[in-house]
């Protein structure tokens, strides 16, 4: 067993337990909830940028007075708005039509993927509102998978190809933030 992996797992578990204890019952005990959530997430997953997490959540003024459940709703709303923005962005590139045919074909696929991702986020919001947290987590996870599928379609153009690189990365981070917040609310239960 790799000792660095087990240490990372231990640290992640400790952070998760501390977050669950702090957010018990949807009441935040101390500190700045957005900063604390983003710090925990960026420490547990280096792909989540702390500053991106904070600025994204704080873009909604309600985040300053929200409890953990309110932040879950805000984070899912950010996912939905971001997927809609990406869909519009892709549409503008397709209408321009100046990209090579292979890129245009991949972009059309990505439009479908982000449309499906949007549907998954909407289903996650509905599941979350009904307190079906496990389902909400699955739907948000699926939204992230669809976006990742879009990114994989461009690997044939090389690592430096960046047509949707920033958009895919932002959406990945937003879905990860939502997943982690909902997981905190759900707690360590096996099924719910």
Automatic annotation (TrEMBL):
Sorted UniProt keywords: Disulfide bond, Signal
CDD domains tied to this protein: PMEI-Pla_a_1_like
GO cellular-component term (any): extracellular region
Record's signal peptide: 1-26
Domain Pectinesterase inhibitor: 29-181
Superkingdom per UniProt: Eukaryota
MF term (GO), any: enzyme inhibitor activity
Pfam families per record: PMEI
Entry-linked NCBIfam families: PME_inhib
Family, per entry: Belongs to the PMEI family.
Protein name: Pectinesterase inhibitor domain-containing protein
UniProt source species: Papaver atlanticum
